[in-house]
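Quick entry between incubations.
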Amino acid sequence: MFKDLLKLERFPTTWCPGCGLGQIMIQLAMVMDELGLDYTNCVVVSGVGCTGRLAGYMNVDGIYTLHGRTLPVAEAVKLVNPSLKVIVVSGDGDLASIGGNHLLHAARRNPDLTVLCNNNQVYGLTGGQAGPTTPRDTRTVSSPAGAPYDPVNLQNLMKSGAKYFYAKTTVYHQLHLRNCVKEAIAWPGFAFVDITSQCIENNGRRLGFNSAYEMLLHFRKTYNRAAEGAETLEPNQIGIVRKG
Amino acid sequence: MKRLVQGNEAVFLGALKAGANFFAGYPISPSSEILVLAAEHAARDPDFKFIQSEDELAAANAIIGASLAGAKSFTATSGPGFTLMQEAIGYGHQVEVPTVFVNVQRVGPATGMPTMPAQQDIVQTNYGSSGDYYPLVFYPNSVEECYRYAITAFNAAEESLSPAILLSDAFVGHLNEVVDLDAIAVEVVPRSRPPLGTGKRFFTGLAHDEEGQPRTADAMVYRKWLAKVKTWHEKVAARYSDFEFKGNSSSDTLLISYGIVSRVIAPLASQFALFRPIRIFPMLGPELQECTQGYERIVVIEANDGQYACLVECELKRDVIRVPLLGGRVNLDLAKKGLSEKLEREVS
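Done. Structure below.
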């Protein structure tokens, strides 16, 4: 049962009602259950931010690293014990901003890691500041006139290497999300799953959404599946691009 | 077998002797020999893992991950890199991870004088990260001691379940001396914590209770944890109260020095009493009290602007004369000149 992989005794989680993290965690637990991953063969590493708490709710050894440092820690764990499946779950700010240099170089070294990026386009835990993935012109508490820059292009960053695995999915597309996680875990190298997620309390409401549900409907309306075998995902597409 | 060994090489060989099987680092003079030796060793021995990291932040966090995964891990750096590693040192103390940081000091701040010797990271070593923590820190002054105290640092790290620090300097690190490392017997403490993949633990940098459950607003849990950590660090430190003392009944002055400076001023033993802390932190309390008793003047001579002197003053609650040797020049003539000025008499 996937529930055995969750520390239900620590529920409720610290996450706000409507947060996308619960769904990401459940999908991860379902995939782990399906693949026979448990505390004897799997470790979850998470960074600082709302997402950071995720490792503490899983029934495996979990590491809550310093802000931005998931990848160096995870890479070392994998190197010391290659028989462990090492799954990194962290936020877009943690992975792409403060941990950006590590992301660049971990992808280049291509260790066998699975990275799930909870991409909610905002620094949620600190109150809703603009982050590296905030779309241009988005109003946040730290960009009152609209975010002045284009967001980091995670797909292109991942595809800069000779070998890569980049999946884009959303919390609305549950089955697609689960499949992306499953394929990423099976991928024998650095696999990055970019999960568009909703932060209703510290981002969505300022953008005019009344509920997490409205944000999910927005994801449904915005994103379409890319054709099988597509080499590039357009900004409104979900899918997987890879090169081994 | 007796042979010529370099200080940095002795640190690496000591680490191997202690059972180290993981190194992550970023090149920085004057510590780079350790990284290169680790790379060469990893190429020969598949059980020894090596990462040349993208920066010191990655290296410092990697050795923590490696330790949790079951390795005995270490890194080596110098001042500017050590500054970047401070966040991981604090993290290592919060999460209780045994690992070893080697800092071969050079003149700072910032890029400073690459790579002239200095001892300017003394305060940073104990107070550089946020929060309160109690690292065990050793500072050898010879090639033989580099080997011996590298092993001691790994032992102290395991026993204190936290990052231990081995200080060195550009001079000691690049010192070549004839030693027989095989003849040096130091006991090796085995790893204590079961590795990752054996439990359902949560290793977090958040304040937490004994089960690893985050407790970020509970003062009592926090105080209990810190008191426990402090007590057991003091207990471990007491096993390593290493220092060197040469009394001098014909002198009213005691010189305190450590690392390379203690080597340089050794010829002054006929004129002064000499005290050399080897365990730099936690401060040697009773040992300092006892050895300084009866001496009218206490001088701390060091390659920084009075960092250890200030701490000695706190410990002894009496005035201490400072003789700083700055700018990467550490030699007996400058030491004598500094002493002559501060003691207002000719020291020759």
